[in-house]
Amino acid sequence: MIIPKPGLPVRGSKTGQPIMALLDLLGRSWAMGIVWHLYKGPSTFRELQDYCESISPTTLNTRLGELNKCHLVERCLEGYVLTEYGRELFELLEPMGSWARHRWAKSFEENDRKK
Q1: Are 4 and 21 in contact (CB under 8 A)?
Q2: Is 108 exposed, middle or buried (0-12, 13-18, 19+ CB in 10 A)?
C-alpha cells in the first residue's frame, strides 16, 4: 500500500493536501488506536497486538511501518514509541476524543431518549 504523503494524491484529495494525507493515514485500520496506545509509553509488538485485540500480525506490522515512514512512530529498546511528531499529533487529537465522548456521543443518547 502507498504511504500517504503531503503533495501526492491521497484518498479524498487529488492534490495531496497535508491534512488529507494525515487523515488518509489515520483512517487506516488501527492507526489511531496505535497512536492512542503509544501515548501512554513504549510498547512491544505483542503488547500492541493485545491492545488492538483483533489485529493480525501482518496488519500491525504494516501499520507500524506506515506510521514509522510518516515520522510518527519509531522503534526503541522497549519496542515502539511515539516520536515528537507522534506526541504532538496525539495532543491535538486528544481534545477531539474528549469532545466526541462528552458532547457528540451524548447527543445520540439524548436523541435516543426522545424517541
Answers
A1: yes
A2: exposed
Whether the CA torsion 66, 61, 30, 82 is positive or negative: it is negative
pLDDT in tens, 30-78: 999 999 999 999 999 999 999 998 899 999 999 999 999 999 999 999 9
The answer on pLDDT for 12 being more than 90 is no
pTM of the model: 0.89
Q: Please say whether the beta carbons of 52 and 60 come within 8 A.
A: yes
CATH no. for 32-107: 1.10.10.10
Give the alpha-carbon dihedral of 9, 12, 17, 22, to 10 degrees: -100
- The grid coordinates of residue 38 equal 503509544
Cell of 20: 488529507
Cα separation, 41 vs 32, in Å, equals 15
Per-residue confidence at 14, pLDDT binned at 50, 70, 90?
very high
